[in-house]
Specification:
Blueprint: H1 3-13, H2 35-58, H3 70-98, H4 107-126, E1 129-130, E2 136-137, H5 145-173, H6 178-205, H7 210-219, H8 223-235, H9 242-266, H10 271-292
Antiparallel strand pairs: 1-2
């Protein structure tokens, strides 16, 4: 195991067992090293579930025609938007505000929220990418259309990984529930299924083979566990950064919804289908957060 990874794992093991819910660490487990297996399993699970959702969605390319029906794409985009907005509010912004006291409690979330928007705005500006509808953004580049499509989904996936990572950090270091982090991870994985299909299908339409389209679509989701692990390490290392990081992840996800997803499902006819998808996605994520969190 690389030294940096070993240090990261050892650091997580050093988290006091009182910070981990007893549903994860049974009574009597007090050894720091012994807690490793109990502690890391839910962490790794929460980090990897969204990636598996992307891979599952990318596999749709084996069962569907070259192009996804427009109505289905609108529903899926709306559904993904609803899940991301609900996750931003219920799982990130509200917990960030509850970490403070009085009127000043809103200051860190506001700073983090605006920071998340600014960060994704910068990434969007400097990264050449191509949306599923064929619209190109970012600086001119000699990258292929396939590469630009993959970059577009990578931009979408990174904030989702951040959200899961910071939720896990809250469960490890603050008064959060690991079940809530798992609920957020599951919700993002569910909305990653349509996102995976939305990336693999256009890749297939561009002339790529089914396996190549699946591989690129699935690998575009690998940024989620990587981004989640990076944010997890950062959030558990700097004292007092948690409310900022929660809101930062929310701002980044909301930017993706407002800038990318909503315009795509609102274009053309039957935009109300996307709105219905949004309502269903929001309701599902709200239920997951309340029931499992």
């Amino acid at each position: 195991m690389p030294a940096c990874v070993s240090v990261f794992f050892d650091y997580l093991c050093a988290v006091p067992t009182t910070a981990i819910p007893r549903t994860i660490i049974p009574e009597g487990v007090v050894s720091v090293k012994k807690c490793y297996l109990y502690n890391m399993n839910p962490v790794l699970t929460a980090l990897l579930i969204p990636f598996l959702g992307t891979a599952l969605g990318s596999a749709f390319v084996f069962f569907m025609k070259r192009e996804m029906p427009a109505l289905l794409q609108k529903v899926l985009l709306g559904f993904a938007s609803g899940v991301m907005v609900a996750a931003s509010v219920w799982s990130l912004l509200i917990p960030a505000m509850e970490m403070g006291e009085g009127a000043a409690a809103v200051v860190p979330p506001v700073i983090g929220l605006l920071g998340g928007f600014a960060f994704l705005l910068l990434i969007d500006y400097i990264t050449p990418h191509l949306h599923a509808n064929g619209e190109a953004e970012g600086p001119r580049s000699r990258l292929s259309r396939t590469a630009k499509l993959a970059l577009a989904v990578t931009i979408h996936n990174f904030p989702e990984g951040m959200a899961v990572g910071v939720a896990i950090a809250g469960a490890l270091t603050a008064d959060f529930n690991m079940a809530g982090a798992l609920a957020l991870s599951l919700g993002i994985a569910i909305q990653n299924v349509p996102e995976g299909a939305i990336i693999s299908m256009p890749l297939r339409a561009e002339g790529n083979s089914r396996w190549r389209s699946f591989g690129i679509g699935a690998l575009s989701g690998i940024v989620e566990p990587l981004g989640g692990a990076l944010v997890l390490l950062l959030a558990t290392s700097i004292l007092g950064i948690m409310p900022y990081m929660l809101a930062f992840a929310a701002g980044a996800m909301l930017y993706v919804v407002v800038e990318e997803l909503v315009p795509e499902y609102s274009q053309g006819k039957h935009s109300n289908i996307g709105t219905i998808g949004f309502a269903l996605g929001f309701a599902l994520m709200m239920v997951l957060d309340v029931v499992l969190g």
